[in-house]
Amino acid sequence: MNFELLTSPRQLAFIALREVHKGAYADIALDRVLQKANLPDSDCPRGSGEANRRLVTELVYGCTRRQRTLDALIDQLGKKKSHQQPKDLRTILHLGLYQLQYQERIPESAAVNTTVQLARENGFSGLTGFVNGLLRQYIRLGKKEDGTIKNEESFLSSFLSLQFSDPVERLGILYSFPDWIIQVWVEQFGLAETEQLCLWMNKTPTIDLRINPLRTSIEEVEAALSSADVAFQRVSHLPQALRLISNAGPIQNLPGYNEGWWTVQDSSAQLVSHLLDPQPGEVVIDACAAPGGKTTHIAELMRDTGKIFACDRASRLVKLQKNAQRLKLQSIEICTGDSRNLPQFQNTAQRVLLDAPCSGLGTLHRHADARWRQTPESVEELSLLQKQLFAHASTFVKQDGVLVYSTCTLHPKENEDVVSSFLAEHPNWEIEPSSVDSPAGAYSTAQGWMKVLPHQQDMDGFFMVRLRKTKN
User: Is 408 part of the annotated catalytic residue set?
Assistant: First the structure.
């Protein structure tokens, strides 16, 4: 294999996608190929190494995220349906169609020619004519009579969806989601809101920083980022949050990283610790602490005094330990093990956080393959686990103490249903609405819990509720 092929972003994306289609997680497959490729910064035939890494990342995550739509395009354009194509050829067609449909900066000729070359280099020399013809047919169909490109959404809608009478199936194919996820959202938000949610979930995710007030100020971090020509903006309602709005390069190279001035945490996740409202000197238990963003935030809000027990499996707590060291936090104590098997914590904490394992339907933009991994059956299993964790974590709370339950999903079976079930079985607990001056208060519902809807608040989807133990 020649040097140009080894450093070709499309070849690297093809290798990663082939692993994803075999069952690998998209982020792991991507990291693996980028590490092996070791893209050069100066000798690369197609530009800088960093630019190539960004293109590989976009192609892998984009093709994974959009695979249902891309399959539907193949179904319309080819004589054989997508599932009847050889697996590697299907992946190559995904790469070509993704560039044509979703990558405005890539010229049509480059998208077609590199895809044909990809087919030739990966065992499909006899099908290069088919690949070329299919892609060029798509280009012809996608143009108006005056030669300009049709609007992306209107073209896809007319090209793929007019034959579908089921609006759920239409949204699923047009925006590349399983029908069952669309159905869950339609039942909660209606068709129009669900379409806006789908659009948001297909956007490239932003990066939010949480400033560590024990080491710096938000103004000092803003000045440092400005000096490094990194664009950012503040996030309303959140006193520690900055959102990066330009490509900042490797996070660890940004000013203040080594000094512990900040950590990466989405704005929605920052709301959870504010809802918990931990006070200096208290005992707090984070029952499902990994990877540790909320644990370290709790320590910052407590001014690093008192004690925070961070519970989770040992392998999952490594990142928490590293971040706590970088942020120079001393009040966190690691406790390895499943929180359902930690009786020593009974009636020991003023506050407990249960950020429960969930389906992640509020963060699908960050995890390209998650929409294809979760199923209605996995949600049922998670709901059962969440109820078990809830019941056990509640025993850690002292009389008149507080428990916050949170998830990053938008599924009632993991949110409202879990809370309602707990309250029905535990009459000594009640929902305590957020205080009006809390950052989380802006997202309160009539029922007393908080919901963050991504397409409305431009943050990850989250559910959280604060409960108080009224009597033992």
Answer: yes
